[in-house]
Each structure stands twice: as C-alpha cells, then as structure tokens.
Amino acid sequence: MSKCESLARRSFLLRAASSAALLPLAGCDQLSKSDWFVSILDRAETLTRTIQRALTGRNALAPEYSEAEISKLFRANGTTDPEDSGYQALAKNDFAEWRLEIGGLVERPARLSLAELRAMPARTQITRHDCVEGWSCIGKWKGVPLGTLLEQVQPKANARYVMFYCADPMEQTLDGSDSRYYESIDLASAYHPQTILAYDMNDATLAVPYGAPLRLRNERQLGYKMAKYIMRIELVESFANIRGGKGGYWEDQGYEWYAGI
Hints:
By secondary structure, the chain is α+β, with helices and mostly antiparallel strands. It contains eight helices and ten strands.
C-alpha cells in the first residue's frame, strides 16, 4: 500500500470512528433533534472542512493510479437503472436528445448536448472511489472539468454552491413531489482540477449503471457526493429553500454535507 493510500484509508477510518461515537447521541431523539445540538454538529463539520483545506491546500490532488491498478470489477454505487420514463426514453436513443441545463446564479445560462461536452477540452484521471459503506474501487474517468463550464456560464458574485439535479428517483411520494436525487458542492470544490463531469469510464462510454450520460467525479469527497445521471446544474447562494435545506438527498437524511477524505 502506498503512503497516499495509507493516509486516505486512515482518514476514512477516523471519520467512521467519529461517526460511530455519535450513534448513542443519535438514539436520543430530543437531543439529536434540538436546534443547539444540530448547530454544534454543523460547526464541527465546518471546522473539519476548514482544517482539511488548510492542511492539504485548496488544489491538492487526490492520489492517482496507474493503468495496472484499475479494479477488475468496479462496483456501481447507488441506483443502477433509473425508473424514470423520461430518462429511459433518452437512454433508448443513446442520449442524443439529452441536454445539460446550467442555470441559476449565472450570467450566461447554457444548454449543452453530450456531443458539445465531448468537443470541449477534457481531463482523464485514474482515481479511487471511496464509498461511505466502506468499500473502494479504482477506475479511469474522462470528462470536461466543471471549472471549464463555470468559466463559460460566469457565476454571479453571490453564487456559493453548485447543485446537481439527477434522473434517478429515490422514493415514491404520495403528493407527487420530486423525489429524484440531488447533491451539491461549493465553488472551491467545483473549480478543483480533478472535479470533472465524466462521460467515459475505463476507455468506454459511461454505461447506465455508472451514471450515463454524465456523472460528477469529485475525487476528494465520498462517493455519495458524486452525483450520477445529471440532468441539470444550478448555482445557488443557499440551500434553505431546496428540499430539506441541507444541500443533498442523503444530507437531508442526516449524512454530513462536506464528506471530505
């Protein structure tokens, strides 16, 4: 195991241990749901993010690997075939009619086809995917750097976060409200050189189980941050009025927002 791998795994184990230490507290509903307790956890997460960036640097790279180290079997995390009629129709036509919409707090909203994204300067990287469940795999990804797209749409001064809205339904809702996956990262992560919107995996077109036609690769965070089946991107100032207000589907269920490794 390389030094980088050892450090990354130790970081993951420390995060798991700290989460386990909070489980007894989570069992006490009155405490875990109190405003002051939630506020303490939020401040702790902010401190973790600040310390990590101070120690590693804003543009510090996650470890990259050789072709020989690519996992023979790469597990498909989360949804593997979205049960969404609109998505299924796009998939049948190899996503020829799919368009990525970029809007919100930007000067120049965009609507881009997969062909247009493929025509842009690309980045290829071989990195390890770390799942919150404890497993990891190494894969090769190619895609357009998210920072390149942001430079084109020109974020407004008050934009702080990038929201990703996806095609995979997470649950059935009686009121018909949107239950599809959503996730977010901040602008610092969005401009990181290894943050890409991937359309290829292991030298082949990204397959449906892995997030076709486009998925986020954000290599310094855990797997649930890497949204699959991306349909729309929106730049926002706050999460307050977005679903549960925590910035992502799993975050609204209690997961931490930053999820750095």
